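> example.struct
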Protein backbone atom coordinates (compact mmCIF):
# COMPACT_ATOMS: atom_id res chain seq x y z
CA UNK A 1 0.00 0.00 0.00
CA UNK A 2 2.68 2.47 1.01
CA UNK A 3 6.15 2.63 -0.50
CA UNK A 4 9.17 3.07 1.69
CA UNK A 5 11.14 6.21 0.82
CA UNK A 6 14.64 5.01 0.04
CA UNK A 7 16.55 7.91 -1.48
CA UNK A 8 16.93 11.65 -1.61
CA UNK A 9 14.43 12.93 -4.18
CA UNK A 10 15.58 12.83 -7.78
CA UNK A 11 16.88 16.25 -8.77
CA UNK A 12 17.59 17.17 -5.14
CA UNK A 13 19.25 20.58 -5.22
CA UNK A 14 22.58 19.98 -3.47
CA UNK A 15 24.73 23.08 -3.37
CA UNK A 16 26.06 25.94 -1.31
CA UNK A 17 24.80 29.31 -0.05
CA UNK A 18 26.33 32.77 0.18
CA UNK A 19 25.37 36.43 0.50
CA UNK A 20 26.59 39.33 -1.64
CA UNK A 21 28.08 41.35 1.21
CA UNK A 22 30.03 38.37 2.53
CA UNK A 23 31.69 37.36 -0.75
CA UNK A 24 31.63 40.01 -3.46
CA UNK A 25 33.89 42.80 -2.22
CA UNK A 26 34.35 45.48 -4.94
CA UNK A 27 32.16 47.56 -2.68
CA UNK A 28 32.12 50.66 -4.85
CA UNK A 29 32.80 49.12 -8.25
CA UNK A 30 30.84 49.96 -11.38
CA UNK A 31 28.46 52.39 -9.76
CA UNK A 32 27.53 50.37 -6.64
CA UNK A 33 26.39 52.47 -3.69
CA UNK A 34 27.37 51.90 -0.06
CA UNK A 35 25.28 49.40 1.85
CA UNK A 36 24.46 49.26 5.55
CA UNK A 37 26.81 46.28 5.94
CA UNK A 38 29.65 48.20 4.28
CA UNK A 39 29.59 50.36 7.39
CA UNK A 40 29.75 47.48 9.88
CA UNK A 41 33.30 47.20 11.21
CA UNK A 42 34.93 44.01 12.37
CA UNK A 43 35.61 43.84 16.09
CA UNK A 44 34.03 45.00 19.30
CA UNK A 45 31.71 47.66 17.83
CA UNK A 46 30.11 45.30 15.31
CA UNK A 47 27.48 43.87 17.58
CA UNK A 48 26.31 47.23 18.91
CA UNK A 49 25.98 48.46 15.33
CA UNK A 50 24.09 45.28 14.34
CA UNK A 51 21.66 45.81 17.22
CA UNK A 52 20.90 49.37 16.12
CA UNK A 53 22.38 50.91 19.25
CA UNK A 54 25.33 52.61 17.59
CA UNK A 55 25.30 54.77 14.49
CA UNK A 56 28.16 53.86 12.15
CA UNK A 57 27.30 56.08 9.20
CA UNK A 58 30.65 57.86 9.29
CA UNK A 59 33.36 55.27 8.50
CA UNK A 60 36.32 55.58 10.84
CA UNK A 61 39.87 55.33 9.55
CA UNK A 62 41.17 52.82 12.07
CA UNK A 63 38.33 50.31 11.62
CA UNK A 64 38.41 47.27 9.27
CA UNK A 65 35.30 46.92 7.08
CA UNK A 66 35.37 43.29 5.87
CA UNK A 67 32.71 43.60 3.16
CA UNK A 68 34.83 46.06 1.18
CA UNK A 69 37.01 43.34 -0.26
CA UNK A 70 35.42 40.19 1.21
CA UNK A 71 36.75 37.31 -0.92
CA UNK A 72 36.55 39.30 -4.16
CA UNK A 73 33.93 37.05 -5.75
CA UNK A 74 33.10 40.06 -7.92
CA UNK A 75 36.28 39.52 -9.90
CA UNK A 76 36.77 35.78 -9.29
CA UNK A 77 33.29 34.36 -9.79
CA UNK A 78 34.34 32.32 -12.81
CA UNK A 79 37.05 30.49 -10.88
CA UNK A 80 34.71 29.95 -7.91
CA UNK A 81 31.81 28.67 -9.99
CA UNK A 82 34.14 26.29 -11.82
CA UNK A 83 35.09 24.86 -8.41
CA UNK A 84 31.41 24.53 -7.42
CA UNK A 85 30.82 22.70 -10.66
CA UNK A 86 33.74 20.40 -9.96
CA UNK A 87 32.01 19.46 -6.69
CA UNK A 88 28.91 18.68 -8.72
CA UNK A 89 26.71 21.49 -7.36
CA UNK A 90 23.15 21.41 -8.62
CA UNK A 91 22.34 24.79 -7.10
CA UNK A 92 24.02 27.91 -5.79
CA UNK A 93 22.30 30.29 -3.41
CA UNK A 94 23.43 33.88 -3.67
CA UNK A 95 21.96 37.27 -2.97
CA UNK A 96 21.78 40.39 -5.04
CA UNK A 97 23.20 43.54 -3.59
CA UNK A 98 20.37 46.09 -3.77
CA UNK A 99 22.87 48.94 -4.05
CA UNK A 100 24.49 47.48 -7.18
CA UNK A 101 21.07 47.78 -8.86
CA UNK A 102 19.79 50.95 -7.19
CA UNK A 103 22.86 52.61 -5.62
CA UNK A 104 20.75 54.83 -3.36
CA UNK A 105 17.71 52.60 -3.15
CA UNK A 106 15.40 55.33 -4.43
CA UNK A 107 17.03 56.05 -7.80
CA UNK A 108 14.67 56.46 -10.75
CA UNK A 109 16.53 54.03 -13.00
CA UNK A 110 18.67 50.97 -12.26
CA UNK A 111 22.42 50.80 -12.70
CA UNK A 112 23.07 48.80 -15.86
CA UNK A 113 26.56 47.70 -14.79
CA UNK A 114 25.13 46.14 -11.64
CA UNK A 115 22.41 44.31 -13.56
CA UNK A 116 25.00 43.08 -16.04
CA UNK A 117 27.22 41.67 -13.28
CA UNK A 118 24.45 39.33 -12.11
CA UNK A 119 23.62 38.40 -15.70
CA UNK A 120 27.23 37.29 -16.03
CA UNK A 121 27.11 35.27 -12.82
CA UNK A 122 23.82 33.56 -13.77
CA UNK A 123 25.16 32.75 -17.24
CA UNK A 124 28.25 31.21 -15.71
CA UNK A 125 26.14 29.09 -13.34
CA UNK A 126 23.78 27.97 -16.07
CA UNK A 127 26.72 27.02 -18.26
CA UNK A 128 27.41 24.30 -15.66
CA UNK A 129 23.72 23.46 -15.10
CA UNK A 130 23.82 25.01 -11.65
CA UNK A 131 20.43 26.40 -10.64
CA UNK A 132 20.69 29.93 -9.14
CA UNK A 133 18.70 30.36 -5.93
CA UNK A 134 18.40 34.09 -5.40
CA UNK A 135 17.81 36.03 -2.20
CA UNK A 136 16.51 39.48 -3.03
CA UNK A 137 17.69 41.00 0.25
CA UNK A 138 20.29 39.36 2.45
CA UNK A 139 20.79 41.99 5.17
CA UNK A 140 22.34 44.75 3.01
CA UNK A 141 20.30 47.87 2.27
CA UNK A 142 21.55 50.83 0.29
CA UNK A 143 22.80 53.02 3.12
CA UNK A 144 20.77 55.97 1.90
CA UNK A 145 17.62 54.04 2.80
CA UNK A 146 18.81 53.67 6.37
CA UNK A 147 20.02 57.25 6.66
CA UNK A 148 17.23 59.11 4.92
CA UNK A 149 14.26 56.82 5.49
CA UNK A 150 15.15 55.14 8.78
CA UNK A 151 15.29 51.75 7.05
CA UNK A 152 12.25 49.50 7.36
CA UNK A 153 10.72 51.71 10.05
CA UNK A 154 9.42 53.68 7.10
CA UNK A 155 6.42 52.53 5.07
CA UNK A 156 7.96 54.10 1.95
CA UNK A 157 10.33 51.12 1.88
CA UNK A 158 7.51 48.88 0.66
CA UNK A 159 7.24 50.48 -2.77
CA UNK A 160 11.01 50.86 -3.11
CA UNK A 161 11.44 47.15 -2.49
CA UNK A 162 8.60 46.32 -4.84
CA UNK A 163 10.27 48.33 -7.60
CA UNK A 164 13.63 46.67 -6.90
CA UNK A 165 12.11 43.16 -6.97
CA UNK A 166 10.16 43.82 -10.17
CA UNK A 167 13.36 45.05 -11.81
CA UNK A 168 15.04 41.76 -10.91
CA UNK A 169 12.13 39.58 -12.05
CA UNK A 170 11.93 41.37 -15.41
CA UNK A 171 15.64 41.22 -16.01
CA UNK A 172 16.31 37.64 -14.91
CA UNK A 173 13.01 35.96 -15.76
CA UNK A 174 14.63 33.50 -18.15
CA UNK A 175 17.51 32.65 -15.82
CA UNK A 176 16.24 32.37 -12.24
CA UNK A 177 13.40 30.08 -11.11
CA UNK A 178 13.98 29.98 -7.34
CA UNK A 179 13.66 33.22 -5.39
CA UNK A 180 13.48 34.22 -1.76
CA UNK A 181 12.49 37.62 -0.41
CA UNK A 182 14.26 38.43 2.90
CA UNK A 183 17.02 36.35 4.39
CA UNK A 184 16.11 35.22 7.94
CA UNK A 185 13.28 37.71 8.27
CA UNK A 186 12.95 36.97 12.00
CA UNK A 187 16.54 38.16 12.52
CA UNK A 188 15.38 41.78 12.38
CA UNK A 189 13.84 41.32 15.83
CA UNK A 190 17.29 40.50 17.21
CA UNK A 191 19.67 42.47 14.96
CA UNK A 192 17.58 45.45 13.82
CA UNK A 193 20.30 47.25 11.87
CA UNK A 194 21.47 44.07 10.14
CA UNK A 195 17.95 42.90 9.36
CA UNK A 196 16.20 46.19 8.66
CA UNK A 197 18.64 49.13 8.64
CA UNK A 198 17.20 50.39 11.93
CA UNK A 199 19.01 52.67 14.34
CA UNK A 200 17.00 53.38 17.46
CA UNK A 201 16.36 56.89 18.64
CA UNK A 202 16.50 57.90 22.28
CA UNK A 203 13.38 56.76 24.15
CA UNK A 204 11.83 54.86 21.25
CA UNK A 205 9.58 51.87 22.08
CA UNK A 206 11.81 49.23 20.54
CA UNK A 207 9.19 46.53 20.19
CA UNK A 208 6.77 48.90 18.50
CA UNK A 209 9.49 49.94 16.03
CA UNK A 210 10.56 46.35 15.34
CA UNK A 211 7.14 44.87 14.69
CA UNK A 212 6.12 47.86 12.56
CA UNK A 213 9.28 47.39 10.47
CA UNK A 214 8.55 43.66 10.27
CA UNK A 215 5.05 44.44 9.06
CA UNK A 216 6.47 46.61 6.28
CA UNK A 217 8.80 43.78 5.26
CA UNK A 218 5.89 41.33 5.27
CA UNK A 219 3.79 43.47 2.96
CA UNK A 220 6.81 44.11 0.70
CA UNK A 221 7.51 40.39 0.62
CA UNK A 222 3.91 39.57 -0.33
CA UNK A 223 4.01 42.16 -3.12
CA UNK A 224 7.22 40.54 -4.38
CA UNK A 225 5.44 37.16 -4.40
CA UNK A 226 2.65 38.72 -6.45
CA UNK A 227 5.06 40.30 -8.93
CA UNK A 228 7.15 37.14 -9.20
CA UNK A 229 4.11 35.03 -10.07
CA UNK A 230 2.92 37.59 -12.60
CA UNK A 231 6.29 38.08 -14.30
CA UNK A 232 7.74 34.54 -14.08
CA UNK A 233 4.82 32.10 -13.95
CA UNK A 234 7.03 29.01 -13.57
CA UNK A 235 9.08 30.47 -10.68
CA UNK A 236 8.85 29.57 -7.00
CA UNK A 237 9.37 32.17 -4.31
CA UNK A 238 9.83 31.61 -0.59
CA UNK A 239 10.27 33.24 2.76
CA UNK A 240 13.39 32.49 4.80
CA UNK A 241 13.48 31.67 8.48
CA UNK A 242 16.37 31.44 10.92
CA UNK A 243 15.16 28.16 12.38
CA UNK A 244 16.11 25.84 15.22
CA UNK A 245 13.84 23.89 17.52
CA UNK A 246 13.81 24.62 21.26
CA UNK A 247 13.96 22.06 24.11
CA UNK A 248 12.63 22.49 27.64
CA UNK A 249 15.42 22.13 30.18
CA UNK A 250 13.07 20.15 32.43
CA UNK A 251 9.63 18.54 32.39
CA UNK A 252 8.20 21.53 34.28
CA UNK A 253 5.12 22.61 32.26
CA UNK A 254 6.32 26.21 32.63
CA UNK A 255 9.54 25.29 30.83
CA UNK A 256 7.50 23.74 28.04
CA UNK A 257 5.43 26.88 27.74
CA UNK A 258 8.62 28.95 27.57
CA UNK A 259 9.64 26.73 24.64
CA UNK A 260 6.39 27.43 22.83
CA UNK A 261 6.78 31.16 23.31
CA UNK A 262 10.33 31.09 22.01
CA UNK A 263 9.37 29.06 18.96
CA UNK A 264 6.38 31.27 18.28
CA UNK A 265 8.58 34.35 18.28
CA UNK A 266 10.61 32.69 15.50
CA UNK A 267 7.61 31.47 13.54
CA UNK A 268 5.43 34.58 13.84
CA UNK A 269 6.55 36.30 10.64
CA UNK A 270 6.73 33.06 8.67
CA UNK A 271 3.19 32.21 9.83
CA UNK A 272 2.09 35.42 8.12
CA UNK A 273 4.11 34.80 4.94
CA UNK A 274 2.97 31.23 4.68
CA UNK A 275 -0.59 31.27 6.03
CA UNK A 276 -1.53 34.81 5.02
CA UNK A 277 -2.54 36.29 8.36
CA UNK A 278 -1.28 37.23 11.79
CA UNK A 279 -1.90 34.31 14.14
CA UNK A 280 -4.03 34.72 17.25
CA UNK A 281 -1.07 34.44 19.61
CA UNK A 282 0.58 37.38 17.80
CA UNK A 283 -2.49 39.58 18.19
CA UNK A 284 -2.61 38.81 21.90
CA UNK A 285 1.12 39.54 22.22
CA UNK A 286 0.75 42.92 20.49
CA UNK A 287 -2.20 43.96 22.64
CA UNK A 288 -0.62 42.89 25.93
CA UNK A 289 2.65 44.62 25.10
CA UNK A 290 1.19 47.92 23.98
CA UNK A 291 2.25 47.39 20.37
CA UNK A 292 -0.14 49.27 18.12
CA UNK A 293 0.66 48.47 14.49
CA UNK A 294 -0.34 50.67 11.60
CA UNK A 295 -1.92 48.12 9.25
CA UNK A 296 -4.29 49.03 6.41
CA UNK A 297 -7.08 46.82 5.12
CA UNK A 298 -5.22 46.64 1.81
CA UNK A 299 -2.21 45.28 3.69
CA UNK A 300 -4.32 42.50 5.17
CA UNK A 301 -5.65 41.57 1.76
CA UNK A 302 -2.16 41.54 0.23
CA UNK A 303 -0.83 39.33 3.02
CA UNK A 304 -3.73 36.97 2.63
CA UNK A 305 -3.54 36.67 -1.15
CA UNK A 306 0.17 36.36 -1.81
CA UNK A 307 1.61 33.64 0.35
CA UNK A 308 4.90 31.89 -0.38
CA UNK A 309 5.39 28.72 -2.44
CA UNK A 310 7.98 27.05 -0.28
CA UNK A 311 9.84 27.60 2.99
CA UNK A 312 13.56 28.29 3.02
CA UNK A 313 15.33 28.10 6.35
CA UNK A 314 18.72 28.09 8.00
CA UNK A 315 19.56 25.61 10.71
CA UNK A 316 22.74 25.77 12.75
CA UNK A 317 21.65 24.98 16.30
CA UNK A 318 18.79 24.00 18.49
CA UNK A 319 18.10 25.96 21.66
CA UNK A 320 17.10 25.13 25.19
CA UNK A 321 15.19 27.20 27.71
CA UNK A 322 13.95 27.23 31.27
CA UNK A 323 12.08 29.45 33.71
CA UNK A 324 14.46 28.60 36.55
CA UNK A 325 16.79 31.56 37.23
CA UNK A 326 19.54 29.18 38.40
CA UNK A 327 19.42 27.24 35.13
CA UNK A 328 19.31 30.45 33.13
CA UNK A 329 22.72 31.40 34.50
CA UNK A 330 24.19 28.63 32.38
CA UNK A 331 23.69 30.45 29.13
CA UNK A 332 25.52 30.70 25.80
CA UNK A 333 24.95 33.65 23.52
CA UNK A 334 27.45 32.49 20.86
CA UNK A 335 24.59 32.25 18.39
CA UNK A 336 22.50 35.44 18.08
CA UNK A 337 19.46 33.78 19.64
CA UNK A 338 21.16 32.56 22.79
CA UNK A 339 20.31 29.39 24.70
CA UNK A 340 20.59 27.67 28.02
CA UNK A 341 23.49 25.22 27.68
CA UNK A 342 22.06 21.83 26.82
CA UNK A 343 23.92 19.20 28.90
CA UNK A 344 23.45 16.61 26.14
CA UNK A 345 25.07 18.64 23.38
CA UNK A 346 28.45 20.05 22.45
CA UNK A 347 29.13 23.53 21.17
CA UNK A 348 31.39 24.79 18.37
CA UNK A 349 34.47 26.95 18.99
CA UNK A 350 32.14 29.94 18.64
CA UNK A 351 29.71 28.62 21.25
CA UNK A 352 27.03 27.44 18.78
CA UNK A 353 25.21 24.30 19.93
CA UNK A 354 25.72 21.32 17.61
CA UNK A 355 22.59 19.19 17.29
CA UNK A 356 22.06 17.04 14.18
CA UNK A 357 18.86 15.48 15.58
CA UNK A 358 17.49 19.00 15.98
CA UNK A 359 17.58 19.34 12.21
CA UNK A 360 15.26 16.35 11.79
CA UNK A 361 12.97 17.76 14.46
CA UNK A 362 13.02 21.21 12.84
CA UNK A 363 12.26 19.78 9.37
CA UNK A 364 9.31 17.83 10.76
CA UNK A 365 8.02 20.81 12.74
CA UNK A 366 8.10 23.20 9.79
CA UNK A 367 6.57 20.60 7.51
CA UNK A 368 3.70 19.97 9.91
CA UNK A 369 3.13 23.67 10.50
CA UNK A 370 3.01 24.74 6.84
CA UNK A 371 2.74 21.65 4.64
CA UNK A 372 4.81 23.27 1.88
CA UNK A 373 8.07 22.13 0.29
CA UNK A 374 11.13 22.95 2.37
CA UNK A 375 14.58 24.06 1.27
CA UNK A 376 17.42 23.92 3.78
CA UNK A 377 19.29 26.96 2.54
CA UNK A 378 21.90 27.30 5.29
CA UNK A 379 23.66 24.86 7.59
CA UNK A 380 27.29 24.26 8.41
CA UNK A 381 30.12 24.48 10.90
CA UNK A 382 32.14 27.65 11.41
CA UNK A 383 35.58 26.44 12.48
CA UNK A 384 39.26 27.33 12.37
CA UNK A 385 41.18 25.56 9.63
CA UNK A 386 44.90 24.99 9.36
CA UNK A 387 46.56 25.22 5.99
CA UNK A 388 49.30 22.59 6.03
CA UNK A 389 52.65 22.93 4.31
CA UNK A 390 51.60 20.73 1.40
CA UNK A 391 48.60 22.98 0.69
CA UNK A 392 46.02 20.67 2.22
CA UNK A 393 43.40 21.21 4.91
CA UNK A 394 42.28 18.21 6.96
CA UNK A 395 38.83 19.39 8.03
CA UNK A 396 37.50 16.10 9.38
CA UNK A 397 35.47 18.00 12.02
CA UNK A 398 33.47 19.65 9.20
CA UNK A 399 32.94 16.33 7.44
CA UNK A 400 31.70 14.81 10.69
CA UNK A 401 29.31 17.71 11.31
CA UNK A 402 27.84 17.51 7.81
CA UNK A 403 27.70 13.72 7.80
CA UNK A 404 25.62 13.68 10.99
CA UNK A 405 23.31 16.38 9.68
CA UNK A 406 22.83 14.69 6.30
CA UNK A 407 21.86 11.47 8.08
CA UNK A 408 19.11 13.38 9.91
CA UNK A 409 17.90 15.05 6.70
CA UNK A 410 17.55 11.56 5.25
CA UNK A 411 15.51 10.56 8.32
CA UNK A 412 13.25 13.58 7.82
CA UNK A 413 12.76 12.61 4.18
CA UNK A 414 11.82 9.09 5.33
CA UNK A 415 9.39 10.75 7.77
CA UNK A 416 7.65 12.14 4.70
CA UNK A 417 8.99 15.70 4.78
CA UNK A 418 9.16 17.24 1.31
CA UNK A 419 12.67 18.70 1.06
CA UNK A 420 13.74 20.03 -2.32
CA UNK A 421 17.33 20.96 -1.65
CA UNK A 422 20.22 21.63 0.68
CA UNK A 423 22.74 24.44 0.32
CA UNK A 424 25.48 24.41 2.94
CA UNK A 425 26.44 27.81 4.30
CA UNK A 426 29.64 29.26 2.86
CA UNK A 427 30.81 26.54 0.43
CA UNK A 428 33.80 28.81 -0.01
CA UNK A 429 35.25 30.62 3.04
CA UNK A 430 33.63 34.01 3.45
CA UNK A 431 33.28 36.87 5.90
CA UNK A 432 31.39 35.95 9.07
CA UNK A 433 28.25 37.98 9.39
CA UNK A 434 28.27 37.88 13.18
CA UNK A 435 31.87 38.75 13.90
CA UNK A 436 33.25 40.03 10.60
CA UNK A 437 36.06 37.49 10.88
CA UNK A 438 37.64 35.35 8.15
CA UNK A 439 38.96 32.95 10.77
CA UNK A 440 35.49 31.46 11.21
CA UNK A 441 35.47 29.29 8.11
CA UNK A 442 32.59 27.22 6.71
CA UNK A 443 33.95 26.34 3.28
CA UNK A 444 34.88 23.31 1.25
CA UNK A 445 37.23 25.77 -0.44
CA UNK A 446 39.78 27.60 1.65
CA UNK A 447 40.44 31.25 0.86
CA UNK A 448 43.82 32.66 1.77
CA UNK A 449 42.55 35.72 3.59
CA UNK A 450 42.88 36.57 7.25
CA UNK A 451 41.22 38.56 9.98
CA UNK A 452 43.57 41.50 9.56
CA UNK A 453 42.73 41.74 5.85
CA UNK A 454 46.00 40.22 4.61
CA UNK A 455 46.23 37.22 2.26
CA UNK A 456 46.53 36.42 -1.43
CA UNK A 457 42.86 35.38 -1.86
CA UNK A 458 44.13 32.13 -3.38
CA UNK A 459 41.54 29.29 -3.37
CA UNK A 460 42.56 25.83 -2.03
CA UNK A 461 40.42 22.67 -1.90
CA UNK A 462 39.89 21.19 1.58
CA UNK A 463 39.42 17.50 2.36
CA UNK A 464 35.67 18.18 2.68
CA UNK A 465 35.63 19.36 -0.95
CA UNK A 466 36.22 15.80 -2.15
CA UNK A 467 33.90 14.33 0.46
CA UNK A 468 30.96 16.58 -0.52
CA UNK A 469 31.63 15.87 -4.19
CA UNK A 470 31.16 12.13 -3.53
CA UNK A 471 27.98 12.69 -1.53
CA UNK A 472 26.47 14.74 -4.36
CA UNK A 473 27.61 12.27 -7.04
CA UNK A 474 25.73 9.50 -5.22
CA UNK A 475 22.78 11.75 -4.33
CA UNK A 476 23.41 10.92 -0.66
CA UNK A 477 22.67 7.22 -1.18
CA UNK A 478 24.78 6.16 1.83
CA UNK A 479 22.19 7.69 4.16
CA UNK A 480 19.56 5.25 2.92
CA UNK A 481 21.61 2.04 3.14
C1 LIG B 1 23.01 33.31 9.06
C2 LIG B 1 23.15 34.37 8.01
O1 LIG B 1 22.39 33.88 10.15
O2 LIG B 1 24.15 32.74 9.61
C3 LIG B 1 24.48 34.40 7.29
O3 LIG B 1 22.11 34.28 7.06
C4 LIG B 1 25.58 34.11 8.29
O4 LIG B 1 24.63 35.63 6.66
C5 LIG B 1 25.37 32.72 8.89
O5 LIG B 1 26.86 34.26 7.78
C6 LIG B 1 26.46 32.26 9.82
O6 LIG B 1 26.70 33.20 10.81
P1 LIG B 1 28.17 33.75 11.08
O7 LIG B 1 28.01 34.78 12.14
O8 LIG B 1 28.97 32.58 11.53
O9 LIG B 1 28.65 34.30 9.81
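> example.seq
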Amino acid sequence: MFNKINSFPEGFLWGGATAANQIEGAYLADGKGLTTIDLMPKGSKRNEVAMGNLNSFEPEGEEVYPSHEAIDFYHRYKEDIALFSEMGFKSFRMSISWSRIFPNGDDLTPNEAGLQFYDNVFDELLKYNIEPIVTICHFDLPVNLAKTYGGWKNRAMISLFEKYSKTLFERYKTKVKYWMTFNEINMLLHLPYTGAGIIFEEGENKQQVLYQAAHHELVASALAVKACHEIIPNAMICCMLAAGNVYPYSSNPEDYWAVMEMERESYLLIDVQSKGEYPGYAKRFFIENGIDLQITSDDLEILQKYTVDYIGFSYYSSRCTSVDPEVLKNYTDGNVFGSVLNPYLETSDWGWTIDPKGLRITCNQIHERYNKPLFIVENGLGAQDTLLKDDTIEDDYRIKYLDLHFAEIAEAIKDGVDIIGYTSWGPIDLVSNGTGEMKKRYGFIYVDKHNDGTGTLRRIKKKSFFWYKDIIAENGSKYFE
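> remarks
The chain has a mean pLDDT of 96.
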